[in-house]
From TrEMBL:
Gene Ontology molecular-function annotations: methyltransferase activity
Keywords (A to Z) from UniProt: Methyltransferase, Transferase
BP terms from Gene Ontology: methylation
Organism in which the protein naturally occurs: Actinomadura yumaensis
The organism's taxonomic lineage, starting at the top: Bacteria, Bacillati, Actinomycetota, Actinomycetes, Streptosporangiales
Protein name, per record: Class I SAM-dependent methyltransferase
Keyword tRNA-binding: no
């Protein structure tokens, strides 16, 4: 049986907190247009990592709890919250078994992480945690490999160093998540997306890529260092600009908890 690719983002917590671009503020505006209230609402952000989405929601006025398996990532999240001047409550647990009380949240969000979960179990847990008519939001903020661009070249290099990594070539769209939510009984399912460029210096792009699942979260340190050197050389030789404009796509699916069916006898 082939080994299952399971990265450990705790191994790259420092790069993760320094170099991964967070969700753009426009995401909150789009969520509000989709009926997801933020200010004064109780929100749980599962798979929160270093708290990028949790912090964005807290800055918009939500009362946010962030949950993740990695204590190392949550330590980075607290430091970033301090610098941003916001408060988020963090807890170490899995998305499938949060240990949190029933009907405690108006919204549950999952940013850049749904693919790591046992979807049926996570969706069932979200249903338990949501209040009536509560919302679940699955969101992504992905770099876009396009023919000849720096992202495509970077992904090719990741694959050369880590053949077990199979996450390249993405479009930033996730239709399967809609099926996951519909199967779990959520309704009023809708999606939206928008694209933007994120500026990176070559050094920060190297750090961003090193923080990814295919490099720092899964390669041994000596191999990750060799990758860093080769990507640095690639950028110098093929993409020598002082600022790299990296295309990204923000995509989200929003769904609503349906009322429980009455028990009939």
């Amino acid at each position: 049986m082939a080994d299952v690719f399971v990265p450990d983002f705790g191994l790259t917590a420092n790069d993760y907190s320094r170099h991964r671009a967070g969700f753009p503020p426009e995401l909150v505006e789009r969520l509000q247009k989709s009926g997801v209230g933020v200010r004064g609402r109780d929100v749980l952000d599962i798979g929160t990592g270093t708290g990028g989405l949790a912090r964005l929601l807290a800055l918009a006025g939500a009362r946010v709890t962030g949950l993740d398996r990695s204590a190392a990532l949550l330590e980075q999240a607290r430091a970033l919250d301090d610098r941003a001047g916001v408060e988020v409550t963090y807890t170490v647990a899995s998305a499938e078994d949060t240990g949190l009380p029933d009907a405690a949240f108006d919204t549950v969000t999952a940013g850049q992480c749904w693919h790591w979960f046992d979807a049926p179990r996570a969706a069932a847990e979200i249903g338990r945690l949501l209040r009536p008519d509560g919302h679940v939001v699955i969101a992504h903020f992905d770099w876009l490999p396009l023919p000849g661009n720096v992202v495509a070249a970077t992904e090719h290099l990741i694959g050369a160093f880590n053949p077990a990594w199979t996450m390249g070539g993405g479009t930033g769209l996730y239709p399967r998540w809609l099926t996951d939510l519909a199967t779990a009984g959520f309704g009023s399912i809708e999606t939206f997306s928008f694209d933007l460029d994120v500026p990176y210096t070559p050094q920060s792009w190297v750090g961003r890529v090193r923080a990814s699942a295919g490099v720092g979260a899964s390669l041994p340190p000596d191999k990750a260092e060799a990758f860093t050197a080769e990507l640095t050389n690639l950028l110098r030789d093929r993409y020598p600009d002082d600022i790299l404009h990296i295309p990204h796509r923000t995509w989200a699916v929003v769904a609503t908890k349906r009322p429980a069916k009455p028990v009939t006898h």
